[in-house]
Amino acid sequence: MNFASVRIITDDVDRLVEFYEKVMGVPAERLAPVFAELALSSCTLAIGHSQTTQLFGAGSVVGANNRTVIIEFRVEDIEAEYVRLKPFVDNWVMEPTTMPWGNRSMLFRDPDGNLINLFEPVTEDAIKRLRGRH
Description:
By secondary structure, the chain is of the alpha/beta class.
């Protein structure tokens, strides 16, 4: 089995695509006006309009209503990312902080309120644990 993607459902695809293009530093591929993908070598983030959820069954997904999932990206330099993202991230949850498990993390919300964690392993144990992972 291979992990394929995470999909965010939204009422404003254009707004989220623009936001994630800035965060991830890659252009989105617009497969349809209501659907886009942002692909990294380690993962794909898909963004679909709420209209697309009709295909899954009425009421199966509700956009901008998540409080249980954290979308995480490993970065090379958390401090540089903080400086880069600070001008356009409006909702900071946590500025760069070293966590008990050895990652330096910062958390913020996208325009729909989804939680994003950018992290950099900084302790020897964290670096060893994550060595070889994307």
